[in-house]
Write the structure tokens for this entry.
Amino acid sequence: MMDYEKQMAHSAVALRPSGIRQFFSLAAEKKDVISLGVGEPDFKTPWAIRKAAIDSLDRGRTWYTANAGLAELQVEIVAYLRRRFGLEYAPEEVLVTVGGSEAIDLSIRTFVNPGDEVLIPQPSFVCYEPIVQLTGGVAVPIVTREEDEFRLTAKALRAAITPKTKALVFPFPNNPTGGVMRREDLEAVAAVLRDTELMVFADEIYAELTYGEKHISIASLEGMQERTVLISGFSKTFAMTGWRLGYLAAPKEVTDVMCKVHQYAIMCAPTTSQYAAIEALRSCEEAVGEMVGEYNLRRRLVVSRLNEMGLHCFNPQGAFYVFPSIQSTGLTSQQFCERLLYEKNVAVVPGDAFGACGEGFVRISYSYSVEHLREALGRIEAFIKGL
Amino acid sequence: MTKDLLLLLEKNARISCGELATMLETDEAQVEAAVAALEADGTIRGYTAIIDWEKTNREYVSARIELKVTPKKDRGFEELAEKISRYSEVQSLYLMSGGYDLALTIVGKTFKDIAFFVAHRLAPLDSVQSTTTHFILRKYKEKGVVLEDGCEDERRVVL
């Protein structure tokens, strides 16, 4: 008998399973569960984008592209970043990746040596810590709090920096809290970072999904572009999750080295998806605006209903999640979610899946139709009343 | 607010004014007043349910009829349209551009009902030159709602 566990890399075996996945394997065993769990748009990719992909296949464009991506797409990404966020990149500073996920992986693998510390504001998306661990780095959580509107404060950042700190993951607009960074918050953080050698891995995948002020990229602040890897993608903005297409933008010295890793591991991002993405950037701003408008209506509905039923709920300013506190119920996040699942057939994600400090919260996605949300909220309300 | 309010009601007219107010970031009284005004000025003409009659045992046939007509000198198509609208079998009536002038959908219990309507109600009308009747065989989508079962959410929780 093979002892696989002994044979496999210790760092891989030691990875903790995703708390979201764990909980949803439970949910998958039950019938008639209404989920509020998914992390992707309910909208289909706008037709113009799908059509562009079909046309590219019709024309037989089925080969690899350049490692860094189609030149035409790099140019469109540069124009988009300038138009939307006032950023100035050269096309060769853009690397097209397999989703934002690969861009995160590349950033960490390109910068982190064994023993290096990577700061990760939490609650946040679940992939940063495991990837840091795979490189032999040390993930250092920084707790963001509701009283600070789940923003990263300069004070918390300063307190977390040590001589071993290599980088800061900067996940705003934030999944799962919906927290965003305003200009003054960014200025304060940037003021701390400018005195250091830290790199910033700015995961801005939700940049287009904000409901108050427009998103500001940390890279647009003075002196920050040179120390930032800007990570984004098409999944959330254009409802293109299944296309697996993202990108990063960083100084050329950095993308040159990242491109080596990308080239050996991936070769290039999917060609069909890249043609689709060109169309997305050229013609779909209006479609994005409509989707954002729809998310906003749902956001208000969900936040208001949760607050009314006694689950105190931070008013999220970005992404498509709400992160209500469930502390008033006296249950832990896991207990709350399991009981809600077994008693009312509704699946939401326990907050501790996003870092230990997420305990006492749950994540509810509003990337569902208003009908679906109303039904699920009704059940949550009945659950709370029955406690 | 008016456009968003109408879009929400068009999708689901049963949603409460309280919920509408929340989604539109206003208060319930404002929504109630706006709906009342839209009803009064005829912008909102009514509220209906979208029914898949296939699921019931009601005898039901519907057809789409194209009419070519000679417009009246002074009243154009209005007079005829008004007359046809009066029949309760007529569910919709539109003036069209292109190869014919009026399009109407009508419902009946049987094919005979429809044939009777065309022969005895429409054809004899003065200005009707010709009628073309298309029976509706199956409805896939009605008023923006897909009428097929099994449109499950295929999304998976992947991470």
User: Anything to note?
Assistant: Chain B touches chain A through 16 residues (CB under 8 Å). The first strand of chain B starts at residue 61 and ends at 69. DSSP finds five helices and six strands in chain B.
